[in-house]
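Narrative of accomplishments. A recurring question from our advisory board has been how the design workflow behaves on a single, concrete structure rather than in aggregate. To address it, we present the structure tokens for one chain from the evaluation set, followed by the sequence designed for it. No filtering or post-editing was applied between the two.
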């Protein structure tokens, strides 16, 4: 009888997803042992008591009888029409619903967008830190991630000159995540204009991950990349998961804008890939039109006194009180990305810290290295818990960092 080992694909060698990796598995073990772990590792609103708006669930209920059959591979036409209207209202150059693709979350469409573009060895410019799905999907589709730096010293905003310097003969695309996960940065219009100029000069495809477009604080700016791109090929990603707190609906969309002649073959490739998976979840697609045309339910959460605003305030105030931490105040999205100061803990290891925090204080965060940041001193926390719980977690963080600092001092003395 054969005992040959089944070896996984070599494409997985460089794929990481620390958000749900070894630390999350250990947290589940602690839960099973009767410990209560505060999990700040995912941006999953439903786990923190948020609910999808009632008019979305009402639309799904009303259309259950209409959801038994496959629909068009790109999605319900009424839903795509609503997405098209939103994009055109913003000023995007989108020819029609044939440029709109609905998927099982934006994640599926990100993979499809890269698969339709890349040949083996093609390069994609990605932010560091990034949302690791982008790196994984690039590698799994034969591409090579090339990282541009979004350092805290510059407000986590990219440097357009560095982007230009990274471009080579195999560069095919630039990815921008705006508002940014994990840093919360919102990119200024001037930077976006320079990125568009670079893409035009180098004939690059733009990928705009704008899933957090409606999650911004204190009037932070947001300019859709497609509006500045004009006739330049650009794929914009959105969805129901964050702005509408409906992660479990698994509904995202991608909008292909730009000159018809330039994007026609790529659009057809996307349609082919969409056809191979038949269609996205039909039931949840009925929520798209009411989401985009109904009342604004996210703004009250983002205003002073709103839950997300106050949770962000709790992070900012906790960092200000800390002996060890510093953080660029997030302008958007659902996360903060604090860093441990080098002057107080010069030999900091983000993975060792995250494991100690989990084991000793039963709080789960994501190390910054999980977002493709080399020699990271950062960790990511979600802003979804209530403000008192966030303040409590940062007290736990302070205790662990204090013990690490004392241990390091004792080792130096010895």
């Amino acid at each position: 009888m054969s005992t040959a080992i089944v070896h996984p694909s070599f494409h997985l060698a460089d794929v990481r997803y620390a958000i749900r990796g070894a630390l999350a598995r250990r947290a589940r073990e602690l839960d099973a042992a009767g410990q209560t772990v505060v999990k700040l590792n995912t941006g999953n609103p439903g786990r923190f008591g948020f609910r999808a708006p009632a008019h979305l669930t009402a639309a799904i209920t009303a259309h259950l009888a209409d959801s038994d059959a496959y629909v068009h591979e790109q999605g319900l036409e009424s839903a795509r029409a609503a997405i098209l209207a939103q994009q055109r209202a913003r000023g995007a150059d989108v020819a029609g619903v044939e440029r709109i693709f609905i998927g099982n979350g934006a994640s599926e469409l990100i993979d499809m967008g890269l698969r339709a573009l890349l040949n083996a060895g093609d390069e994609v410019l990605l932010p560091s830190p990034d949302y690791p799905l982008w790196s994984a999907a690039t590698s799994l589709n034969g591409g090579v991630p090339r990282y541009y730096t979004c350092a805290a010293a510059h407000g986590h905003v990219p440097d357009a000159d560095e982007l230009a310097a990274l471009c080579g003969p195999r560069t095919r695309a630039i990815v921008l995540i705006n508002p940014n996960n994990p840093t919360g940065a919102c990119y200024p219009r001037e930077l976006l204009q320079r990125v568009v100029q670079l893409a035009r000069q180098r004939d690059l495809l733009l990928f705009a991950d704008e899933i957090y477009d409606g999650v911004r604080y204190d009037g932070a700016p947001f300019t859709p990349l497609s509006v500045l791109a004009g006739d330049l090929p650009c794929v914009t990603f959105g969805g129901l998961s964050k702005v509408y707190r409906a992660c479990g609906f698994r509904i995202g969309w991608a909008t292909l804008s730009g000159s018809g002649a330039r994007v026609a073959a790529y659009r057809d490739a996307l349609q082919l890939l969409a056809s191979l998976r038949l269609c996205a979840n039909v039931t949840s697609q009925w929520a798209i039109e009411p989401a985009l045309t109904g009342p604004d339910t996210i703004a009250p959460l983002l205003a002073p006194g709103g839950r997300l605003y106050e949770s962000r305030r709790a992070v900012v105030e906790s960092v200000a009180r800390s002996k060890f931490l510093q953080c660029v105040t997030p302008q958007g999205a659902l996360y903060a990305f604090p860093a441990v100061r080098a002057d107080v803990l010069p030999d900091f290891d983000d993975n060792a810290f995250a494991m100690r925090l989990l084991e000793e204080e039963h709080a789960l965060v994501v190390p910054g290295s999980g977002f493709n940041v080399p020699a990271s001193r950062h960790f990511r926390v979600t802003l979804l818990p209530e403000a008192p719980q966030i303040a409590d977690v940062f007290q736990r963080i302070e205790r662990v960092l204090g013990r690490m600092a004392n241990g390091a001092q004792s080792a130096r003395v010895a």
